[in-house]
Amino acid sequence: MKVTETSLPGVYVIEPSLFGDDRGYFFESFSQRDFSAKVKDTVFVQDNESLSAYGVVRGLHYQKPPYSQSKLLRVISGRVLDIALDIRRGSPTFGKHVAVELSGENHLQLFIPRGFAHGFSVLSGEAVFQYKCDNYYCPASEGGIAWDDPVLGIDWKIPPDKVILSEKDRHHPKLKDAEWLFDYGEELY
Asked: Whose CA is closest to 164, among 126, 116, 131, 112?
């Protein structure tokens, strides 16, 4: 696999080695040994999958300690714009984000470490999205940042009148109004 660090240190794009012929293709989507050696020495404990229609925006989500999560994300079918947002106060990249298109065609994966918020928008008719987490979900620990906070400057690639949100995602605070954020330098692993 090819691993490329993004403009946010610790956030990586992972491109698998794809082997194809007239029968189709094969690739190793995950190897704990290779992931630990090349990306982050963490162990994933939960796999999640969602199906979403065009225009769905999910996020920006995170979990507070002790339930903070790293995520390894990929799309099985369709296309999404995946977002990682640095929410570590004091970080040189605080409030900055990266956006990576993940699709069933490009097979790219995005690794988002603890200390970041995550969100995505669906760019195709529908998308099947899978991700691994290195900590279990805890409803009492969840947090969120407003997907449309203008200070963040995120272009979700969806016209605002076509965005579909959950009720919960309609009410997250702007980054400056968030009651709880991570601190840069805090040990999260």
From this structure: 126
Query: The tokens 């799309």 sit on which residue?
Result: 75
Q: Is 61 among the residues known to form the active site?
A: yes
| Arithmetic mean of pLDDT over the chain | 97
Residue 17 CB: number of other CB atoms within 10 A? 10
Active-site residue identified among 12, 107, 118, 131:
131
Q: Are 33 and 97 in contact (CB under 8 A)?
A: no
| DSSP state for residue 150 in the 8-state scheme | G
Cα pseudo-dihedral 134, 49, 146, 122, rounded to 10: 140
pTM exceeds 0.90 for this model: yes
pLDDT tops 90 at residue 52: yes
* CB of 75 closer than 8 Å to CB of 129: yes
Query: Is 118 designated active site?
Result: no
Q: Provide mean pLDDT across the span 15-19.
A: 91
Measured CA angle at 92 (ends 86, 94), to 5 deg: 30
Q: Which two tokens stand for residue 172?
A: 């997250």
Would strands 126-133 and 46-53 be described as parallel, antiparallel, or unpaired?
Answer: antiparallel
Cα separation, 141 vs 77, whole angstroms: 30
C-alpha to C-alpha distance for 17 and 131, rounded to whole angstroms: 19
DSSP state of 146: -
Catalytic-role residue among 12, 61, 107, 172: 61
